[in-house]
Specification:
With 69 residues, the chain is mainly alpha-helical. It has 3 helices and no strands. The longest helix has 20 residues. It starts with 9 loop residues before the first helix and ends in a 6-residue tail after the last helix. The model has no long low-confidence stretch (mean pLDDT 89).
Length: 69
């Protein structure tokens, strides 16, 4: 979708498992701020390890052969 510049509604992205949560526009910044505060309170090592795991998964997925039609 990203490579082809396809647009998708937020609800469709949520229903297809591409996002974990939808934020309400009414108090969007307050919701973002509360999540940022939670992350800021985490030890740096937790965030670094999480980022590393995500990078490893992306690398593994990019190395996985795709099915040809």
């Amino acid at each position: 979708m990203l490579l082809l510049n396809h647009k998708m509604a937020a609800t469709d992205a949520w229903e297809n498992g591409l996002v974990m949560e939808l934020l309400k526009p009414v108090n969007f910044m307050e919701q973002v701020d509360s999540r940022v505060k939670v992350m800021a309170a985490m030890p740096n090592k937790v965030l670094q390890d999480t980022k590393s795991l995500i990078k490893q998964l992306i690398k593994k997925l990019s190395e996985t052969p795709t099915m040809k039609s």
